[in-house]
Design brief:
Component of the F(0) channel, it forms part of the peripheral stalk, linking F(1) to F(0). Belongs to the ATPase B chain family. Keywords: ATP synthesis, CF(0), Chloroplast, Coiled coil, Hydrogen ion transport, Ion transport, Membrane, Plastid, Thylakoid, Transmembrane, Transmembrane helix, Transport. The chain is an all-alpha fold and 184 residues long. The chain has one domain. Helix content is 90%, strand content 0%. The chain has three helices and no strands. The protein has helices at 2-11, 26-159, 162-183. It is rod-shaped and about 205 Å long.
Length: 184
């Protein structure tokens, strides 16, 4: 350390008319060389370093600006997506409600239609039963009438003889003759 301070002190003692020579003190010469190099670098490199820092600053600011724009665009897209999502959810709820009400309406229509069909079938069944009862009653009546007629004819045939038969035919012919005269 003493050598460094001695070299600075010895700089003040150099004579202006003295001879030019080499300083062999390495620490003193290195320090002087470093200060000269740093001074030159600062003087000439200040503009280049300032330009480099300004360019880097502009790139960082542009990147921040672009990031902000992208962020704002992403926020807008997110809001649009949220709006679309809420619309779709409302539509889905509406479809769900409409679907359930439509299902209930179709269910009621099907139940009503089934009841009507059952009523019609019950009416057809009753009509068929009534028709079949009337047909059976008519068949029984016809058989009873035929049997009664056959019984009456059998009784008449046993009771009637030829003479009674001829008198009945003559009486009937007379009645027909009288009716014919009335109508003419």
């Amino acid at each position: 350390m003493q050598n460094v301070t001695d070299s600075f002190v010895s700089l003040g003692h150099w004579s202006s008319a003295g001879s030019f020579g080499f300083n062999t003190d390495i620490l003193a010469t290195n320090l002087i060389n470093l200060s000269v190099v740093l001074g030159v670098l600062i003087f000439f490199g200040k503009g280049v370093l300032s330009d480099l820092l300004d360019n880097r600053k502009q790139k960082i600011l542009n990147t921040i600006r672009n990031s902000e724009e992208l962020r704002e665009g992403a926020i807008e897209q997110l809001e649009k997506a949220r709006t679309r999502l809420s619309k779709v959810e409302m539509e889905a709820d509406q479809f769900r409600v409409n679907g359930y009400s439509e299902i209930e309406r179709e269910k009621l229509n099907l139940i009503n239609s089934t009841y009507k069909t059952l009523e019609q079938l019950e009416n057809y069944k009753n009509e068929t039963i009534n028709f079949e009862q009337q047909r059976a009653i008519n068949q029984v009546r016809q058989r009873v009438f035929q049997q009664a007629l056959q019984g009456a004819l059998g009784t008449l045939n046993r009771c009637l003889n030829n003479e009674l038969h001829l008198r009945t035919i003559s009486a009937n012919i007379g009645m027909f003759g009288a009716m014919k005269e009335i109508t003419d």
